[in-house]
Amino acid sequence: MAYPDMAMYKEEIKRCKRLYKGFSEAEPFIEAVCDAVERFFKDNAVEVLPVFDAEEAEEKIRKGESVRIAPSMDPVIAIGLLKAISKATTKANPDLKNTLKELNSRYDQFLDAHTGQVTKDDLTSLRDSLIKDNVLEKDLATFLFSFLLSSLYRQQLDSISEVLRTDLWEGGDCPLCGVKPHYGLLTQEEGKKQFDCWLCGTVWEHTRIKCPYCNNSDHERLGYFTLEDNENCRVNFCQDCCQYYKIFDTRKFHADGKVVLSIHNLATLNLDLAARKEGFTPGSGLEWVNDSELEKLDRQN
């Protein structure tokens, strides 16, 4: 079965509909993208795996160094998947029809300029250029490219993530790919804090009272807030570095088995807006709030 398992994603969508007010409106949008990713991987095999030495990886982690494994990708596969995701997004939102034409043109230009393997940085640069040139707003660009990159990374790194010695890791960044987290959860059994890498899916425990971005552990400089209509998720913030991440309390909704936090993240973007309103930026670098929304908030204040 191709990874990610979209049947599991769709079950998580149903759970999020029950948990989060207003998420029903986004359901067709996200489900269309899940279907597109599933169809793409059924028709296109991604076989090239990055070199991985388990003993070397364990030694790096023992030294406090992330493995920072970064698979190279066939640009035809990467852009093909990106086109499929963009098309599905447009199908769910016909107002993006003209945008899709411009996107496909820019995607073809990227292919012309990249004949060899491409990296996450290459695709991130493409995303940034689309935002800079006003082809996409930040939230849609983040949605398209985070879905693209996480699908490609998980397709190639899932088997590695399962054998990585994450129990040896105490860092704030992902022990496998090295990116900063955007969300995590509190476990049902002991209420431990776990991060779930938005990019490769690696899960690791982290000290509950500690900022993953600047390592601040002064409880008086760390805090969190929730919204009245959503206590399943809270925004954890650090007053030293002024950054935030989201934590989902699985003890409140009694999830069985693995929780697909990427869907919960999409169901709670109002919390990202609330965090930005309070002056905190996402430590992950994933921008889910548009400049226009922030300007509107400034005018209201």
Task: Describe the overall structure.
The chain is of the alpha/beta class. The chain folds into 2 domains: 25-53 and 71-163, no CATH class; 168-300, Alpha-Beta Complex (FdhE-like fold). It has 11 helices and 7 strands. Strand 4 (222-227) and strand 5 form a beta hairpin. The mean pLDDT is 91.
- Oligomeric description of these chains: single chain
Name of the CATH superfamily of the largest domain? FdhE-like domain
The helicity comes to 40-55%
Structural class: alpha/beta
What percentage of amino acids are in beta strands?
Answer: 5-15%
Shape descriptor: globular
What attributes does this structure have?
301 residues; alpha/beta; FdhE-like fold; 11 helices; 7 strands
Task: Summarize the structure in short.
With 301 residues, the protein is α/β, with parallel strands linked by helices. The protein has helices spanning 6-19, 27-43, 54-62, 75-92, 97-113, 120-132, 138-163, 250-253, 261-267, 269-277, 291-300; strands spanning 183-186, 193-196, 203-205, 222-227, 230-238, 243-249, 281-282. The mean pLDDT is 91.
In terms of topology, how is this protein built?
Layout: H1 6-19, H2 27-43, H3 54-62, H4 75-92, H5 97-113, H6 120-132, H7 138-163, E1 183-186, E2 193-196, E3 203-205, E4 222-227, E5 230-238, E6 243-249, H8 250-253, H9 261-267, H10 269-277, E7 281-282, H11 291-300
Parallel strand pairs: 1-6, 6-7
Antiparallel strand pairs: 1-2, 2-3, 4-5, 5-6
